[in-house]
Each structure stands twice: as structure tokens, then as C-alpha cells.
Amino acid sequence: MSELIVEAPGFLTTVQDLGRPGHAASGVSASGAADPIALTVGNRLVGNDPGAAALEMTMIGGAFRPTADAVVALTGAETGARADRGPVLPWCAISVRAGETITCSALRAGARSYLCIRGGIQVPLLLGSASTHLLTGLGGLSGRALREGDRLPIGAIAPRSPLEYPVDPSAIPSYGLSGPFRLTPGPQGSWFDERARRTLYESDWRVTESCDRMGIRLAGEPVRAMASRELTTEGVPLGAIQVPPAGSPIVLFVEHQTTGGYPKIANVISADLPRLGGLRPRDTIAFQAVSRSQAHALLRAQKEALDAILA
Amino acid sequence: MPRVVEASDRAFLAVFDDAATTAAGRDVRRLFDWLSRDRPAGLVDLHPAYATLLITYDPLRCDPAGLASEIERRAGKVGDRPARETRAFTIPVRYGGLGGPDLEEVSRATGLSVPEVVAAHCGAEYEVAFIGFTPGFPYLSGLPEQLHTSRRGTPRTSVPAGSVAIAGGQAGIYPVRSPGGWNVIGRTELVLFDTEGDGGATLSPGDRVRFEPMRGSA
Fold first, then answer.
1. Residue A27 in contact with residue B178, Cβ under 8 Å?
2. What is the pairing mode between strands A234-235 and A259-260?
3. What is residue A26's DSSP assignment?
């Protein structure tokens, strides 16, 4: 079996696919790619199933060398990737020779990049998924980030031919230029008054250093519930905006704990969840309220645009 | 009467009560079982908790308003549903020592001697209210009132797998390593989350749990 050798792991690189949704009742959050759209497109470029396992790189990319001729694609934020023979074009299927190293550098904008390889990364599955859940050390390659010297088995077959042309530049998100994140009301929305809602929707929020696959803590004007009430622990959705007593909102992300006891004022819409994957500390973001039907219309439009690329 | 609220653009929350009551817990479990067995179109996930059930769906695979109505309809009829079969577990625990670093602190906080803390913890019969937070983690109701303590001031970034812990009026066990703010009083070797093969939690809502001290405990 051919392998992908890790020559340099980068800042934080893990094996990810589209996660393991459907097991919240066992306390298992879905995990999976922080930017599932970038992963899905990368897989299509190399001819894989949409959910084949790939490498998710964070902030600073790594260096990787296949032991056999391979087809790879780099999607997500730009990594300044180079192979032995020169710069590697992102959002495009690239042939790499056995023993040729692909070196990725620091991401100038955005936070995550994906290296998809034809055949997919083969690691033991947990609950049907290869995704790594770092917080609990489960899944992926031994539940941890990649290290120098790791050897990742690569699958021998893929269902389709690689795409012959790069993704249309107009279809590529502009990492680093984030429009507002759209929100729908959370289950404890009524705990917050008009003043708190104005703070949420009219402030600029700074992404703090506490920004990882579990959650994104924001700094800004404190948001306070009307009364200090205890919330009986309940299940929490991905993208929930929790408001602890101190008033700094936390956006729950792909490795979030499945239950929580803080009130949730709002929730990021499904269509904007992949964009959360592009946030890095010191980014400034804003929020915008939308209705559930607007949220669904945006999701449908996003799916149609993605289907066009994947065809 | 139960109510169904929007939790996100892809999740509803069925709320039976605002507090953890026996009746709400039973109703949550019945609705969870009913929706698990007879799954409406578009259903992605279910998460029972003390008095609520989180229902996650795919907005592109169903009519959300229709799903909300169906959940509300069933929530109103859970009284007619059969109770689930539950099992009894005895969990062997090595109390104190390296595996139970907070046992002394709990003894101080409660005014009970260490053997009295262990006896009180083992003397109760607990019920699994639900599994959540991290893989396989059981929220156990039934912790004797004399053992109610506050959480640790500073949570640990890593609590070892198998840690048996208490906080507030709750008892639990950390099946896998994770961050945690509860008071760790002992360690069990019993596997509560299967990380090989299919994976999955050992305990289920409604199961009855007792603890027993292993030889060599404090």
C-alpha cells in the first residue's frame, strides 16, 4: 500500500473527513473538517468520494511526501504550497511523483487548508468516520495531531477521474474577507433583552486566542441575560452562541461538548458554519439576524453552487 | 405541556420542564425512543438531557414546520408509550490515591471522614439521566445530599479516562480523557465507551448504577 510520509507536521495537522454526526446521545460530537466545503471540493478534484479522509492543516502547513505517484489537491486558505518542480496551484488536481515533497507554508489569510489525495487517507474508523477528535484523543491517527515521521496509508482506488480543470476562481471563497455571520434565535433568546440583542448585532467582535476546534471565544461589549438564572443542562447544536455569566460569547464548533449549561442567545446558520473554520485570533467579525426561512434559502443556494462544482 | 422551540436552523428542542424532574426525564426518554424507532424524514440526531430532547434535522430533506408539528404531536402522547427496559450495573472503584486526587478535599468540604464519603457514594443507587458532554459520560442522578459540593475552582485541562467524579448534586464518570471541572474521587477500569469497532456508550438513560470499592481503596 502506498503511503504519505509526514516530513514536517505544520502547526496543527489532523486527519479529517466529514465527521460522525448522529451520535450526540452517546456524548460524541461530529468533529470532521472545520471547513467541510473545502474538503468536499478537494476530494472531487482528485476523484474521491466527497467524504474521503484528508489532511486538515491549521495556520502553518506541513510538508508531505508520497511513496508512490499520486494525485493531490490543496483547497481552503492559500498555503503557498510548492513541490520539487515549483509552485503548486491550489483548487486544482495536481500530479505528484513518488518521492516528491509538497511543502506548505504559513497561511496569510484564513485558518485552515486541506490536502486531499486520490484514494483517501486510510485510518481505522470510529463510528464510521476517520475524523480526529483532539479533545478526547479519539479517531484519526491515534487521536492526535500528525508528527514528523508519521506514515499515512493511502487508498488504492477512487470512484471517479480527477477533474481536468481548476475550480472557477469566482467559486473560491475569499478567506480573510468575512462578511457578517448570519444568526437565528437560540432556545434562550427570550432570556436576553433588546439591549443585549443590540450589543450582539451592532458590535464588532474580536476572535480571541481561545479559538480552536471546540469553540471560538469572542471579546467585545459584555452581553448579559436579563436575570442570572441557572439553565438545566441540555443538548447544544453546532454553531450555538453560548453566553457565560461574564458576558463573552463562545461560538461552539465541530468538537464542542454535546451538552451545556450556559444560555444560548443565537445560533450561526448552517450556511455560515464552514466560514467559522476560516477564523483566526484577532479577526474581527459581526453578526446579522436572519429568519429560519432565509437561513434555509441560503443553505439551498450554497448546496446548488457546490453541486455545480462537484458535477 | 411540552413545548417545541427552535434551537438553530437545523435543530429543535422539545422542552418538558425547566428543571430536572423524574417525570420530565421519563418523558424525554420515551420521546427519544419513539423518534429513534420511528424516524421522521430528515432526522439527523437526537440528544436527550434532563428535561429536554434536542432534535437535529437536515433542512434540505424535510419540511421543518412539519417536523416541528410531528415532534409536538408525539411529545403530547408520550404518556402512552412503553417504558424502556433498563439494566443494572455495579461499577468497581479504587477510591482516593492517584486516581482520586479530590477525595480529601471532598471530605473537608462535606465534614465527613474519607471512609464516610466512600460509604455514602457507594450506599446510593443512581440512575443514568442521560449520556452527554463527552463520549459515554453518564450524568447520574441520586447523589446523596451530604456529598453535594461545588465544582473545582479551576477545571483540569485533562481528566484521565475512568475518573469517578462528583459536582453539585451530580455524579458522573469520565469514560475518555477530557477537560473537566468535577471533583475526582476515584478511578474505575470498567470500559464505558467502546473506542474499538463500532464504538458506543456502555450505559443508557434509565440504567441503574451502584458503585463498590475495590480492595486497596482509601
1. no
2. antiparallel
3. G
Q: A2 — phi, psi (to 5°)?
A: -75, 160
Which residues, 6+ apart, have CB-to-CB distance to B62 below 8 Å?
A: B40, B41, B42, B43
**Cβ contact, residue pair A28, B44, below 8 Å:** no
Question: Where is pLDDT greater, at A175 or B91?
Answer: B91
Q: Grid coordinates standing for A301? A: 443556494
- pLDDT of A176 > 90? The answer is no
Compare CB distances from B135 to A136, A232, A269 and report the shortest one's residue. A136
Q: Do A25 and B6 touch (CB under 8 A)?
A: no
Mutate to test the interface with B, among A123, A233, A252 (most CBs of B within 10 A): A233
For residue A285, the Cα-to-chain-centroid distance in whole angstroms is 17
Chain A / chain B CB contacts < 8 angstroms: 145
Question: Is the pTM of the predicted complex or chain greater than 0.90?
Answer: yes
Q: Which helix (H) or strand (E) holds A182?
A: strand A181-185
Please report, as a single letter, which amino acid is at residue B32.
F
Contact across the interface for B9 and A25, Cβ inside 8 Å: no
Beta bridge partners of A178: none
Task: Say if CB A216 and CB A207 are below 8 A apart.
Answer: yes
Hey, how many other C-beta atoms are within 10 angstroms of the C-beta on B184? Answer: 24
* Whole-number Cα distances in Å, A134 to A141, A230, B46: 10, 29, 23
| DSSP summary character for residue A212 | S
Q: Where does the pLDDT of residue A280 fall: very low under 50, low under 70, confident under 90, or very high at 90 and above? A: very high
| Predicted pLDDT at A245 | 85
Report yes or no for ipTM above 0.90.
yes
Chain B interface mutation, best of A18, A131, A234, highest count of B Cβ atoms under 10 Å: A234
CB contact under 8 A, B54 and A300: no
CA A211/CA A214 separation, integer angstroms = 8
Residues in Cβ contact with A305 at an 8 Å cutoff, skipping those fewer than 6 apart: A171
Tell me how far apart the alpha carbons of residues A258 and A237 are, in angstroms, rounded to a whole number.
8
